[in-house]
Design a protein that fits this description.
By secondary structure, the chain is mainly β. The protein has two domains: 178 residues, Sandwich (Jelly Rolls); 183 residues, Protein of unknown function DUF2961 (Jelly Rolls). It has three helices and 27 strands. The strands form five sheets. Strands 3, 5, 6, 11, 13, 15, 20, 21, 22, 23 and 27 form an eleven-stranded mixed sheet that branches. Strands 1, 2, 4, 7, 8, 9, 10 and 12 form an eight-stranded antiparallel sheet that branches. A hairpin with a 3-residue loop joins strand 20 and strand 21. The longest helix is centred in the N-terminal third of the chain and has 4 residues. The protein is globular. The relative contact order is 0.19. The model has no long low-confidence stretch (mean pLDDT 93).
Length: 364
């Protein structure tokens, strides 16, 4: 996504606002005015205005509303960091538009920022930036007409400390037909052999699919990424309109992500990357774990009525005399996916995965 630098020289009627623990309501002239908070003791005798409330604590099994905004407006930037790191997969980020009861975004906190393994992985992309050591940033534009609400639920057994800042604009000029931002998470652990992992299903409406993040844990020996990504929309049944050629190909790589002599080689670019390669450490069932993303920003997948998407869990091994030297092999890996899309509705409740999927959120 190329920033509209020319737009910086043009006038705007939008008003900049920001919500954090230092200004929980985003009020004009109200930043840093707290008289109590988790930083009060560290601030000592410095007094009001000196980092009295830089963060919040969310007890195990509870939720916190970190933003409630009256529109129209657009969320422009979300920054946060949470401790301990093991709560990245043990907490759920939800965003609600226009007073809807069902969230448009419902994703484990870490996975939303391409951090699905509770282990920091650098990301330098156009819309998500993860910086040392756990500074998580999102630049997906999120317009709304009447209201926006952002919550974090701590489903881990540990209390979590959350630092956050949500930067947004209030703007009466939001287009009437502006689409709403959505994100959904699913996990198959393991993917039943011979079946596919569903990225998105049951989606109705008109919009654009704009991104995929996968946290992939390998349970089988050999190469694991032969599977094709498939997009079905607007009446597709057995066969999709868009079908890729392999997992590493979809994420912009080739030939097993393998550099001769170096093995798997991580990379992070504005629109795609294999940004995390975790080797076996004796603590996890998986042989290796990976994090990879693909943002369909220059190439959104557009649909008018409906959409679903899948990825095959497919590896390859010795050819057993077939003349090729290898054969394809369905695997049973651990795949957790986060998908991002814009839709002409503030909620897509029918397409949300069932709530019990979150029971398997923790990293095994």
């Amino acid at each position: 996504m190329t920033p509209d630098l020319d737009g910086l020289s043009r006038p705007s009627r939008a008003l900049s606002r920001s919500i954090s623990a230092e200004n929980p309501n985003g009020g004009r002239g109200a930043g840093g005015a707290a008289t109590e908070g988790l930083g009060a003791r560290a601030a000592g005798a410095l007094g009001r205005g000196w980092k009295i409330s830089p963060c919040i604590e969310i007890a195990a099994g509870t939720s916190a509303t970190i933003a409630a905004i009256e529109g129209p407006g657009t969320i422009r930037h979300v920054w946060l960091t949470a401790a301990p790191h093991r709560v990245w997969r043990g907490s759920i980020l939800r965003i609600y538009w226009e007073g809807e009861a069902d969230p448009a975004v419902e994703v484990p906190l870490g996975d939303f920022f391409c951090q699905g393994w509770n282990v920091f992985g650098q990301v330098s992309s156009a819309t998500v930036a993860a910086n040392p050591h756990g500074g998580l940033n999102c630049y997906w534009p999120m317009p709304f007409h009447r209201s926006a609400r952002v919550t974090v639920e701590n489903v881990s057994p540990d209390p979590m400390t959350l630092y956050y800042q949500i930067d947004y604009e209030l703007d009466d000029a939001i287009a009437e037909d502006a689409l709403h931002f959505h994100a959904q998470w699913r996990r198959s652990n393991p993917v039943p052999r011979g079946e596919v992992h569903t990225l998105l299903e049951g989606l109705r409406g008109c919009g654009h699919y704009v991104g995929t993040y996968l946290a992939w844990g390998v349970h089988s020996p050999g190469w694991w990424g032969e599977g094709e990504v498939k997009f079905y929309f607007d009446g597709d049944t057995e066969f999709p309109t868009i079908c890729g050629t392999g997992t590493e190909d979809y994420f912009g790589g080739a030939w097993n992500f393998d550099v001769p002599g170096a093995g798997y080689t991580a990379y992070t670019t504005p629109y795609l990357g294999l940004h995390q390669v975790l080797k076996p450490d004796g603590l996890y069932r998986s042989q290796q774990r990976f994090g990879m993303y693909r943002w369909h920003i220059p190439d959104p997948v557009r649909f008018r009525q409906e959409m679903r998407a899948t990825i095959q869990c497919l590896g390859s091994g010795p050819g057993d005399g077939n003349g090729l030297g290898y054969r394809y092999r369905p695997n049973g890996d651990d795949i957790a996916s986060t998908v991002f899309f814009y839709l002409d509705a503030p909620s897509a409740a029918a397409s949300l995965p069932p709530a019990p999927t979150f029971l398997s959120m923790e990293v095994d």
